[in-house]
Write a structure and sequence with these properties.
two-stranded antiparallel ribbon, binds guanosine-5'-triphosphate, about 40% helix, globular, DNA_recomb/repair_RecA-like, binds magnesium ion, DNA repair and recombination protein RadA, alpha/beta, DNA-binding, ATP-binding
């Protein structure tokens, strides 16, 4: 079996073939395979990794990992300071996915944004999963209809993804329901570790398919169930923080939107005002770019409240969950 790097005889121009992991000193084929399995597919991903993570992934010492990272850094342009115009250019590439409710879209500045995490939290039945299903269909629409002509990845932690409902929602948008289902890639996450491992899998998939939406439904349920008691809180927050940063990186690399759902729990410390709050507290809140609180109103109405956003005013929008999906 010859490694992928053996390109002798190919008529590719010199210097155009991207460097492979195996090209780094100290990285043999076995190490490269382990790194790829852990989601480090190219030199850029290695260059910005932490020695700790690389050491674990490749089962090597931290010193060796450090050297590999340094070699990777020599070979790629690692982002440091960026000019304002480069940032503007990146912002220009931002895509938006319609929720199919004009009011909801407006609340979000024109739809769910790519290169960002949108966290929706609320009680059971508030419409979080329905929003994920709607977006998994609308992302497939062409841009002139509010989509990105893309596909979706869905990490399902509670076994609540419903293919029949997706096909119903897709049909209402004029999409071919069978094709629409093929364009949504669903994985069931059995525990928090598995959930984290599905992110590198999503990276692999998105290198082959035009994935523009990643749904994590629910972001916090496994973490909440597994890390019990005050003693486990710091660990849980650290793991959640890391998980969310991996999700953000996915959004940046593939110019994809990330939708995370989150439950609410009672906050016994709150005596006045709303006694419920999203799980994961500040870690989740600070990492999410947009934070939306969903609550039930007179059926089929729902109220979305934008709680936290870098550039949009706080506000509310009323939408409905109908047989056809989300509408005004
Ligand atoms: P949890 O996951 O339990 O925390 O809730 P959630 O916020 O994910 O709720 P979900 O998105 O599953 O919303 C459920 C609600 O959506 C139901 O109570 C219904 O009102 C509505 N809904 C779900 N499926 C349909 C459907 O096929 N037709 C219609 N008309 N409404 C639906
Ligand atoms: Mg749900």
């Amino acid at each position: 079996m010859s490694p992928k790097t053996a390109k002798a005889g190919s008529d590719e121009k010199e210097g155009e073939a991207p460097a492979e992991l195996e090209d780094l000193p100290g990285v043999g084929q076995a190490t490269a395979e382990k790194l790829r399995e852990a989601g480090y597919a190219d030199l850029m991903e290695l260059a910005v990794a932490s020695p700790d993570d690389v050491a674990t992934a490749a089962e090597i010492g931290e010193g060796a990992a450090q050297k590999i990272i340094q070699e990777a850094r020599k070979r790629v342009q690692v982002g440091g300071f960026e000019s304002g115009s480069a940032i503007l250019e990146r912002r220009r590439k931002l895509g938006r996915i319609t929720t199919m409710s004009k009011a909801f879209d407006e609340l979000l500045g024109g739809g769910v944004e790519t290169q960002a995490i949108t966290e929706v939290y609320g009680q059971f039945g508030s419409g979080k999963t329905q929003l994920g299903l709607e977006l998994s269909a609308t992302v497939q629409l062409p841009p002139e209809q509010g989509g990105l002509s893309g596909e979706a990845v869905w990490i399902d932690t509670e076994n609540t993804f419903r293919a029949e409902r997706l096909s119903e929602v897709a049909r209402a948008l004029g999409l071919d329901p069978e094709k629409a289902l093929e364009h949504v890639h669903v994985a069931r996450a059995f525990n928090s570790n598995h959930q984290e491992l599905l992110v590198p899998k999503a990276f692999e998939l998105a290198r082959e398919r035009p994935v523009r939406l990643l749904v994590v439904d629910s972001l916090t349920a496994h973490f909440r169930a597994e890390f019990l008691g005050r003693g486990a809180l710091a660990d849980r927050q650290q793991r959640l923080n890391r998980h969310m940063h991996e999700l953000l990186r996915f959004g940046d690399v593939f110019n994809a939107a990330i939708l995370c759902t989150n439950q609410v729990s009672a906050r016994p410390d709150v005596l006045f005002g709303d006694p419920t709050g999203p799980i994961g507290g500040n870690i989740v809140g600070h990492t999410a770019t947009y934070r939306v609180y969903l609550r039930k109103s007179k059926p089929p109405r729902r109220i979305a409240r934008l709680v936290d956003s870098p550039n949009l005013p706080e506000g509310e929008a009323v939408f409905s969950v109908t047989g056809e999906g989300i509408r005004d």
